[in-house]
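hey so i finally got around to running both of the ones u sent me last week. sorry it took forever, my laptop kept dying halfway thru and i had to restart like 3 times lol. anyway pasting them below in the order u listed, first the sequence line then the structure token line for each. didnt double check formatting much so if smth looks off just lmk and ill redo it

first one:
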Amino acid sequence: MTASGPTSGDAGTAHGMSLRVLVAEDDRAIRELLVHHLERDGFRTIEAGDGPSALRVARDGIDLVLLDVGLPGVDGFDIARTLRREGRTMPIVIVTARTEEVDRVVAFELGADDYVTKPFSPREVVARVRAILRRSGMTSDATPAVMRFGRLEIDEAAREARVDGRDVGLKPREYALLVVLAANAGVALSRDTLLERVWGYDFDGDERTVDVHVRRLRMKLVEEYHLDACVHTVHGFGYKFAPA
């Protein structure tokens, strides 16, 4: 278990103090990747590689917990259950390789605030952390990211996608879809994953909804603004953001 200090940037600050994020993950490479991106965004991180250590640290003034389910000693579900039973209200984000619906249901019933499946983009995990903390009033998130890919930039503060500085005029779902894809640049995302992250866990529609919105997104970016194709089909699976 180690603690690390913040780097430059104020996205992870509240009232001048760095927010403390517990990264509870037994895979050292994944843990270090998350720590790197969180600290780069201004958060203070504390690491735990097993369940008992994670539970001990979580009881000590942590602002948010990134919690792997498969921790040795005490698993993540038991940790979440214990923390909520003790009345602790810090946000909990489950980060796990488990993709079954029953696991998601269990996580949310135990009081988790979000559920991220591996493989994941660390940039998206940090964005989810910022969003959860912003909703909880713990950070103003005064400097949200602007993602730039050549002629395309995505401004999270303005909720705009711009090509050559001009707002493309995406509808809310189109914009949200682009953000999720761009935050996971180079990662193939299934249609089910996109449905969950853009439309929500309880959405009643089917996978064709994703196809329709991708088609509209491509029409605007490629046909109207002559942008090189950046949203690519992964046949039989979903889509991948890979700008030229």
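and the second one:
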Amino acid sequence: MNKEIQSYNNGLSKADKAICDLLSKEIGKNIPDAEDKIYHRHPVWFIDENPIVGYCKLKDCIRLLFWSGQSFDEPGLQPEGSFKAAEARYKDVLEVNVQDLKSWLEKSKKIQWDYKNIVKRKGVLERLM
């Protein structure tokens, strides 16, 4: 695991760290070729410089975010924001359904919107895959 991401996880409460350790382990295992780094102060994984998945600590939970998640057509993900992102929120590591997570991660590799160039396109997203 990326040392910066491990440091992020280590800075959390025991319960939140357990969630984030599981998420980072599964993300790394299921999209091993993705670049992982701290992006806007949170762990994010990229494919060809395009953000795919990440997580962050909110006030009362951990939010797992898929930038193209609204296009996955999967239960368990809720729309987030005004673009194509979708999220799942966790308060306990036992809430993380690893089979659902694997399915979402598989779709994140195949279904992508071009967030890398969203500024250049003045807020217009184009489908990559």
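quick thing i noticed on the 2nd:
Residues 64 and 88 are 5 Å apart (CA to CA).
anyway thats it, ttyl
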